[in-house]
Amino acid sequence: MSDPKTYDVAILGSGIGGGVLACILARHGIDVLLLEREAHPRFAVGEAMLPQSSMLMWMLGQRYDVPEILNLSRTQSITEHVAPSCGVKRTIGFLYHRDGRRQDPSEAHLLVPPVTPITSESHLFRQDIDLYLLNAALRYGVTYRDHVDAREVEVDRRGVKLTLDTGEEYRARYLVDGSGYKSVLASRFGLREEPSRLRTQSRTLFNHFEGIKRYDDLLEDWEDPKLSARWNEGTVHHVFDGGWFWVIPFNNHEDGKNPLCSVGLTLDMRKYPRRPGVLPEDEFREIVRRFPSVAAHFADARTVRPWVSTGRLQYSSTSCAGDRWFLAAHAYGFVDALYSRGLISTLDTLRTLTPRLMEALRDDDFSRERFAFPERQQAALLNSNDQMVHCSYQAFGSYPLWNSWIRLWLLSTMFNDFRHFRVIVKSLEAGDTGMFDLLDEMPLHGEGKPGDNPVQDLINATDGMLTAVEAGGMRAEEASERIFEMLRSAPLPPVHAWGDPGQHHLDFLPEKLVGLIKWGRTVAPPPFSSMFDFSPENYLKGEVQAEQAPAA
User: In terms of Cα–Cα distance, which of 500, 504, 465 is closest to 482?
Assistant: First the structure.
């Protein structure tokens, strides 16, 4: 029997991460094997994009000249080139709920991100998106097998040998495992941390529904925040002590043809331990009934598929890289769907992994040291997400705490968005997609010193106070007052009344973006001012279109 063919790269898992990577590599003449346990089209969550995920999608498509990836960076191009099954995401909203009481509109936060001509956020109907990427990968020449599982992995100086559950054997020069929690690499090398270092302890149950009402239609006129976009134009989060619901509509724009809506309930296991024998739908309905405004939102909701219910969501690994292999995205670890960070982490890891992998293939050198930065970065992304989510669950217990904490999340997100926007504009100005690597100069979570990232310093200080509140050493109201005082004292951009508890909504209108840039160029302290070394005005006005940037 002749030896099996040796591929340049084998990829386990054909979700968004595996599909994007397969398209890029095959587009550049690299021989790729893509293996999938299931088959497409298939149900998947991880549906809500944010400005960072849209911009990262654009960067990857632009840098590697893959139009199919570029098409996923805007709702308009998704509708035109993929399918009219995805929704728009013009807002991200949080409504705080109390048992037995109608939602108080003064305890809500509706955020409208800035609009630029470069990208826009979407609600991804994953079965269509993942299939679209798979078909693109096949056109670029990827070898694809589904309904197969890699049972054994052997790595030596010659490469990687995969033995499938069918008995077939495949060889590759390098292996990227993006297969999720059941990662064969994590099992083969004993990489799972037991117990996990992650502090968050949550579980979830979810489904796709028909008949979800528009939340805006349930509001009285006086409750409407009168912003440039509405609740239904984005992701709605119903937040309460111990958990949160997500509501992700796919038909929330005039071109949308998908009547479904993704809904999930995620619970803090310390307050809501799993109850054996309780059906997911019964538990979901039981908690919905406690909150009158949530019950009104879901009054006519009908499920369209079987429920998914999980145990603890969080897991982590001791490492993600070795000689000839890399554990990517959810094969490495996962926290929680709150803030839609999973897709950002997946795409940002691909941003740093892909150029190093292509260089390793050229040099025929796959030593772990070459992938040291993606390994450090992926660990930092997981740890940062865990801190953000864990603190959020702590803050859910008190509206004053939540009202102060969410501003720190918003600040962190705003500056991270702006850092990505900065490198996109600099790349357009220079005609060089290599400028995207400037993102590597950002201090990674846990590696910077105090003062390197003033927002992270605020988050770390608040983390300590939230822990004190949970332990009974500080009152929630006292902690909230201290957080607001820190916000009032910090040198923050004048786009929002950060230290005013009564100011909830933020509509990032063009004049506020102009104000942010003016602040950055004049009075911002050095850790912030270094981000404003570019001229985005033409791009914000739409006078220069993003497609003008050449691919590498």
Answer: 465
Q: Enumerate the domain spans of the chain.
A: 1-85+124-200+314-385, 202-309, 398-552
DSSP 222: G
Terminal-to-terminal C-alpha distance of the chain: 42
- Measured CA to CA in angstroms, residue 105 lies from 32, 223, 263, 265, 508 at distances of 52, 6, 22, 21, 20
Inter-residue contact 235 to 89 (CB < 8 Å): yes
| CA pair distance 495, 516, nearest whole angstrom | 7
Please check whether residue 458 is in contact with residue 411, taking contact to mean a CB–CB distance below 8 angstroms. yes
Q: Are 350 and 60 in contact (CB under 8 A)?
A: yes
CA distance 504 to 75: 27
Fold classification of 1-85+124-200+314-385 is: FAD/NAD(P)-binding domain (3.50.50)
Measured torsion, CA atoms of residues 178, 181, 183, 188, in degrees rounded to the nearest 10: 150
Mean pLDDT score, 379-395: 98
Which residue carries 């996990």 as its tokens? 196
- The H or E element containing residue 489 is helix 476-489
**223-265, pLDDT tens digit by residue?**
888 899 999 999 999 999 999 999 999 999 998 899 999 999 9
Could you give the dihedral angle defined by the CA atoms of residues 270, 276, 282 and 284, in that order, rounded to the nearest 10 degrees? 30
pTM of the model as a whole: 0.96
CA 243 from chain centre, in angstroms, equals: 19
| Secondary structure of residue 235 in the 3-state scheme | strand
Contact yes or no for 345/378 (Cβ under 8 A) = yes
For 491-517, give one letter per residue: b (16+ CB within 10 A) or e.
Answer: ebbebbebbebeebebbbeeebbeebb
- Please give the CATH architecture assigned to the domain spanning 202-309: 2-Layer Sandwich (3.30)
